[in-house]
Amino acid sequence: MKKSGRPPKSPHSIDSKQKIIDATIRIIETCGAEAVTVRNVCEKSGVSTGTFYHYFHNKDDLLMYFVREAPLYQDNEITISNNPVDDVTDLYMRLIHLYQDLGINFMKNFYNTANQALSAYMGQTGKEFSSGTIMFLCEKRLELAQKQNHLRTDIDIHTISEDICTIVKGCVFEWCLCDGNMDIKETLHRILQRYFYNILS
User: Fold this and answer.
1) Domain residues for 163?
2) How many structural domains is the chain composed of?
3) How many angstroms separate the CA atoms of 84 and 78, rounded?
4) Which of 20, 61, 110, 176 has the fewest CB neighbours in a 10 Å radius?
């Protein structure tokens, strides 16, 4: 009996997905994330709209690929060391390294308020971060740090996690303004160290 559902992935189908991703990168680098449409991507990649929707629900789902596919999202282990500043810096640097790999031109056009997919990813639903996002993982690590008495018990971890997310976004934006000529890890770590000074136990 023939099985229903999506066809098995073949080397050809995987190649089609990569063509979509590569075309999207070229569009973002030259015209910005707001210029990405299903039609533009299909024309640029040479794939059909049916093939596009086989891999992505819509334009926003495609744009989310560039943050959702970072290696950190396979990391479900919540651990913390004796230094929460190092832990948070290292966690966010996983995402930042992905940004750096995509290149400064890509990031300048991707990291802006017109990119609704990025805004949705970096946002919250009902005062909660979506499970599996970097903000969610950061909050879980800070909760553990608080339980292990590395952080003061009278602070609100969710608010701290929101603040850290804002700090990271500012560092990435500054990195873009500097054309990538900035040690983003050193800057992020220095700012977080000052921020954590008043909340460490």
Assistant:
1) 70-196
2) 2
3) 13
4) 61
21: tokens are 């991703």
Indicate the pTM of the whole model: 0.77
Buried/exposed 158-190: b ≥16 CB within 10 Å, e otherwise: bebbbebbebbeebbeebbeeeeeeebeebbbe
Task: Tell me the CATH number at 54.
Answer: 1.10.10.60
Q: Are residues 21 and 42 in the same domain?
A: yes
Residues 86 and 180 in one domain: yes
54 lies in the same domain as 79: no
